[in-house]
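Support reply, case 0932

Customer input (verbatim):
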Amino acid sequence: MTRRHWIPLAAAMSLGWLGWAPGGHPASAETTTTSSTTRHETHTRLDVADVHVYQTRVLGFVSSDGSAGHHEAFVFDQTVPHAPSSAEAASAFAAAADAVGAALRDPGILPGHCATREVSAPALTASSTRSDTAMVGTQLDHTEVFVTTTMTTGPAVILVGEDQSQTHFVPAGTVNVNTNTHTESFIDDLFETTFTHASTYEVVGHKSVRPSVLDAAGAPAARQVRGPAALSGARGAPVPLFAAVLPGGRSVTVGCPATAFVTLINAGAEPAAGVGIALADPDLPAVLVYQTTDPASNALTGNANTPIDIPAGQAQTFLVAVTPTGPLSPRDVALAFAGGNTAPVSPLVGLNTLLLSGSLSDTPDVVALGATLNNDGIVDIPGLTGTGFFSVATVNVGAAGLITFSADTGGVPLPIDLSVCQTDPATGVCLEPPRPSVTIPLASGATPTFAVFATGTGFLLFDPATHRVFARVTDAGGAVRGATSVAPRTR
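Our regenerated output:
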């Protein structure tokens, strides 16, 4: 309900006499004008893109078990401000692996000389993520301007000027018209959330210390067999033996055993009596221990350095351990296989010899095993100019290093051209086109695979004793650190 207020006529006339008009302003008042400005900000939160910060800690840890007990130590600790997938973290992982490998070889850190060494890939052991949000700045989104007019009848004091920072007196009997320009700024307050990802990776090395022949109780000469004379016994009609040695090469440190498997076949019609294995060269700075094995599992059977009888037409497998007693440059070591009634077994390089070296410091020790299509040790070359191939699986049981994989015919001229490639272990496909050699860095415990291609340039007679293709692994200094071989032929 609206209330109406009535002014008596006399009062109205009185107001008019006083100079006031019905509109509320003096009838003849002086009018002045002023201006002013005002400003205001409206703030709105705006979240910007998140920031991710990484702290990747890399630890190197080693341990050993052996006759001296259990030992362990941290040998590497580095934190990089990058993600685990970054190149910087990869460099830290590699440095940790190098430090772990060096510690495993240093008896001052982990006791024990001869050992089986294993270095793991980097493994995540701890991780956490923390988030922090903070305002990092502002940005102007847009502005809006509003103009308003205000009439003020004096006497009065009003605010004028920029940001209404001044006062203006409106005298009695005057009217002031003030125009105010208002600027409204719309501001984005920028908030940023930082996620800090902390992770810890460990590269772990372990060595299982085994006693060396030189450290074991008793004189080495009492536990080894040297030369055919040590194996001789009562002789009858000679029984033919055939021998094979795998792998074809080992590289160990002085005082540590190089192991290989030997297969002896009795090709005669009667048992081979008292068959044993010895070093053919009595002056070689090394000692040899042999023991029979189960051919199905390679588990040791029988007693060490104990000659056995091999039935006619049967085979017997052995494990041999040849331990250098002094520095030994890479060479093909001939083994003597003999019994009381057996014919001499001629040494055939790549078949029944062991490419052996003994170093004063750790080197790559690459166990290489060749595999042909028919698993018969023969690479078939179709026709005079066809190409045959075989694959080579390797494992580095020694120290890391730069190695070169290549193939040759052992210095025997053969009508074939050879090339090699590194292969994908899952598919067997060459990673790059075949070439004369492949050089790669080889980590301790690494298991790269390769292929060897033999292309005929003429007819190749099958002569597995002298016609062979050797796959060799050499180190940066050119020393052979692993080898295997197959017999080529034209089909």
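We compared this against your earlier run and they match. Two observations from our side: The first strand starts at residue 30 and ends at 47. The chain has three domains: 51-132+195-209, 211-361, 363-491. Please reopen the case if you see a mismatch on your end.
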